[in-house]
Amino acid sequence: MRWLKFTASGKTSWGIVEGDRVIAVDGDPFAGWQRTSRMLPLSEVKIELPLIPRTFYCVGLNYLKHLKEAADKRGEVPAVPDRPEIGYRAQNALIAHDEEVVIPSFATDKIHYEGELVVVIGRKVKHLTEQNAMDCVFGYTIGNDVSERSWQKEDRSLWRSKNADTFKPMGPWIETEADLEKMETIVRVNGKETNRFATADMIFGVVPFLVELTRYFTLWPGDVIWMGTDGASPDIKHGDVVEVEITGVGTLRNRFVREER
Amino acid sequence: MRWLKFTASGKTSWGIVEGDRVIAVDGDPFAGWQRTSRMLPLSEVKIELPLIPRTFYCVGLNYLKHLKEAADKRGEVPAVPDRPEIGYRAQNALIAHDEEVVIPSFATDKIHYEGELVVVIGRKVKHLTEQNAMDCVFGYTIGNDVSERSWQKEDRSLWRSKNADTFKPMGPWIETEADLEKMETIVRVNGKETNRFATADMIFGVVPFLVELTRYFTLWPGDVIWMGTDGASPDIKHGDVVEVEITGVGTLRNRFVREER
Q1: How far is A240 from chain B (nearest CA, A)?
Q2: Which residues form a coiled coil (chains A, B) (predicted)?
């Protein structure tokens, strides 16, 4: 099932995508819902951010090529993490599918994308085991972990480099039935493929993260975990359109624009 | 004005504290409210967490003695930050006044408090100036940035060390009229004073942080910024009661208990 938050005729609601149509529902997928008789062409609705997570988790280094690329840039030998460690991103930075990533006028040209699988939590859980961890996963969506790399070198906590307003596109919807083992992540800039990797080819997968996190944390419905990216990005310029496709989930598309001085 | 979120007779609402009583209001202080005729003794209500912030900001190193102490522990020369840099904490960890901080059974004895001033944002703002920055401040509350120091040494992003469930007590209420320049932060363990410092004695104050953050970020009503702490903490043990008082704001009190194996 493909859950979409959308606005049409001034009303924002959840809906279920079927082919090129969306069926509006009353309620929401976490607390309870039922179908309405309202059906709209997908092309005629404004796609909204699926949700604002209570806590916004994000894995920093979880694919080998990306790890090596990041280490090379720092002139270091890549150190592969020996356990699942989580980081955070900031809610202010979230935008929806088709909304614009605004590059601040005073940013450098080192603007990079990172296409990521996003795990959406469906239930309040703690102390998960390898056996039951996946039961708390409501579905998957897609994230673009936009970064300003010159700030990233200077920031103690990646505050501006990763969390400037509009730097966290997420969407377009939440897919509940995709098979992680079959997914490919494909990134395109202005229609031209620039990255492709097996989404599941993580250093630590979804299950080890869920087990380790919930030794310490309660996960809540609507929490998201961005699972990291592989490979490197070219510098993204004003007017570029970046698409992150994850097969079986969907395609997240955002245009980048540079703020005028 | 002193804004309290509380529960009485099974109903949770906002109220205004006057002396030892609380007057319930309809609505909330951010979106609009009005007084009701319901008045209760403060001692008879359950004090709730004032709010769950949309984004949870926290300054890591913002007082000189704390900075020096942290550097000494790492065997380093203290490096004073040359600009305001922000970090993040996680919403899962928040608890209210008088709720218990639960130390995981597998944590070490290096459990420390950090008594902090918390700035509560009242309006949606960006691009603040030195002149108008304080206009977005709704009021102040108090935070205890509980830390497990052995995990802190190992964590890449302070994920467990700072954000384990219950490690972020905040409250008891939001005070809208306190004068930052006159505040003192006083910490007591089991009634005995262990720290005292001028709350405003920060490396970077509230205004520089608001100006710098809003170059990059939109702040939203209910966002919080924890402003850092001074000095050091003794190791906190099972059964200890930690009180963080900020004069003119209030006292946040929490008992620490060690989870049984």
Answers
A1: 21
A2: none
pLDDT digits (tens, 9 = 90+) for A178-237: 999 999 999 999 999 999 999 999 999 999 999 999 999 999 999 999 999 999 999 999
Topology annotation, domain B49-258: Fumarylacetoacetate hydrolase; domain 2 (3.90.850)
Please tell me the CATH superfamily of domain A1-48, with its number.
FAH (2.30.30.370)
Say whether B211 sits in a helix, a strand or coil: helix
Q: How high is the pLDDT of residue B95?
A: 98
CATH 3.90.850.10 location in chain A:
49-258
| Beta-carbon separation of A52 and B54 below 8 A | yes
Residue A65 C-alpha, separation from nearest chain B C-alpha, in angstroms: 20
Any A CB within 8 A of B251 CB: no
Rounded-to-integer distance, Cα B9 and Cα B50, Å:
18
Check CB contact of A91 with chain B, cutoff 8 Å. Answer: yes
Distance CA A159, CA A74 (A): 19
Beta-sheet pairing, A147-148 with A111-112: antiparallel
Confidence of residue B146 (pLDDT cuts 50, 70, 90): very high
From CA A49, how far away is CA B260, in angstroms rounded? 41
Residues of chain A with CATH 2.30.30.370: 1-48
CB pairs under 8 A between A and B: 82
